Amino acid sequence: MYGSRIMLACGRIAFPLCLPNARRNPRVLRCEAEPQHGSSNARDSGPKKVVIVGSGWAGLGAAHHLCNQGFDVTVIEGDKGFGYPDTTAIRGYYRAFQNIFSLVDELGIKPFTNWTKSAQYSEGGLEIEFPIFQDLPQLPAPLGTLYYSQFFRLPLLDRLTLLPLMAAVIDFDNTDTAWRKYDSITARDLFKQFGCSERLYQDVLGPLVHVGLFAPAEQCSAAATLGLLNYIILAHQKDFDMAWPRGAVKEKVFEPWMDSLRAKGCKFEEDRRLTDLIFNEETGCVSEVVCGRVTYKADAVIMAVAISTLQEIIKNSPTLCSREDFLKVLNLGSIDVLTVKLWLDQKVKIPAASNACSGFDNSFAWTFFDLNVIQDEHQSDSMTVLQADFYYANELLPLKDEQMVVKLKSYLSKYIKEFENAGVVDKEIGRYPKSMTHFFPGSYKNAMRASTAFPNLFMAGDWIVNRHGSWAQEKSYVTGLEAANRVVDHLEEGSFARILPVKEAEPHIQTLRDANKSLNDLRAQLSLSITQLLPSMD
Ligand SMILES: Cc1cc2nc3c(=O)[nH]c(=O)nc-3n(C[C@H](O)[C@H](O)[C@H](O)COP(=O)(O)OP(=O)(O)OC[C@H]3O[C@@H](n4cnc5c(N)ncnc54)[C@H](O)[C@@H]3O)c2cc1C
């Protein structure tokens, strides 16, 4: 009864399942929605409204294309300030991130360093130095990656045990079938099954997976591992090269990007957390986005938030809880991160700007970055400024700042001796529980597609199932563009965004992949005909 009064007051029909939310907060009246323009039921003249929730790579990617198509776009950000998540840790930009590099060219900004060398350390010390691969003669994949990486400790025999893994990389063609096949096992099991030596696993592959997928290999999906290996490391020699933002991504990319979007009419609403959605009973479409006491009318909505925040939204939304695809998201997981920025009283020579590390404790891997090399503001500092990021940092989060600094300094000193004598002048510790996606075995079947049970509600983010084949920030950005394309399709206005496809595999890999596919098809047909024969044999 109470609900119907609200509906009448607003002069239109709201999806009844939303009402408990309104009951909790009687001031959530649709009538006090901020912009009072058209909805999917009764549209005023003027551009159609798209509300985008979240202002990371996915949300801004969607806003970018939809503003270019003349839609009335509002981006809602739950935090105080935009671009917040990208201040948490240092993000790398692989050469494979073609869509992001094309975007920064379009914006006319130069946010990234030149390509940098990187290194990998294990408990025993410097394990590998990775050169700038595009500067070296190109060899057929994956030979260049293996040949030019300088291994300091791992014997050749152990390195050679990596080669059989190529069979899995070839078999994994990023299709739904491939994801289902490999998602049921762990990266650890994958390496074991394909004959990688224990030492290769412990000192190289395990840590590489941990800093790539942010969790220990025994807790990562083999499908996600193969997707990452294929996209960044093994498909093309050049694609493993990395550049770094020359400061906070917020300042170097997001602020100029948002300025360009504002100039096209995009509205940004900060400190507005999405709390629920209101649906039109007749069409099944979202008609309004609820942020506490404020609502926004929408012809289409894109949700571009991280898993952990989406889970909170779902738990509090009776409407979303009524749909299987949203309920399954509650089975997904996220990972804790801890960052330590240190100012030291002397210059320590760090051989590579970015470093992947493991050892000392098997439960987490981490990275450290020479900020004097990477970030503009520290380039002329007389002291060393570095940042270390710890992934899967569950057991580190409760530690006191001082304990973390002692731990980090002792780790660094084992890798590079001069750290022993350096005193800490200043420190900044950041704790970010549940801040990144956990691609654990079995997670694929619970991940959402970009389209949902609601015709005008679309999803974007690095955890969405898509077939583009990219990863991390590039994937988020691409899923934002894909969600924008779905809006264009749904509202039947504008044209589709051009998304640069992932580069095709090199011809020899493609030939092997085609042969493998034919073989798999043949096997499937044979087993089908055998099963068809079986009843007649009874
Ligand atoms: C520590 C760390 C290191 C990483 N390193 C790399 C790397 O080296 N290279 C790489 O490519 N990727 C890296 N990543 C992954 C990369 O950062 C993510 O893939 C990418 O940023 C995800 O972008 P997104 O837009 O999907 O989500 P997000 O960036 O999480 O954006 C979601 C936005 O939604 C907002 N929001 C949340 N809840 C609400 C709500 N209720 N209402 C409104 N807004 C809300 C959030 O505040 C946020 O702004 C790293 C991630 C982390 C955490």
TrEMBL record:
<dbReference type="InterPro" id="IPR036188">
    <property type="entry name" value="FAD/NAD-bd_sf"/>
</dbReference>
<dbReference type="Pfam" id="PF01593">
    <property type="entry name" value="Amino_oxidase"/>
</dbReference>
<dbReference type="Pfam" id="PF13450">
    <property type="entry name" value="NAD_binding_8"/>
</dbReference>
<dbReference type="InterPro" id="IPR050464">
    <property type="entry name" value="Zeta_carotene_desat/Oxidored"/>
</dbReference>
<feature type="domain" description="Amine oxidase">
    <location>
        <begin position="98"/>
        <end position="487"/>
    </location>
</feature>
<dbReference type="InterPro" id="IPR002937">
    <property type="entry name" value="Amino_oxidase"/>
</dbReference>
<protein>
    <recommendedName>
        <fullName>Amine oxidase domain-containing protein</fullName>
    </recommendedName>
</protein>
<dbReference type="GO" id="GO:0016491">
    <property type="term" value="F:oxidoreductase activity"/>
</dbReference>
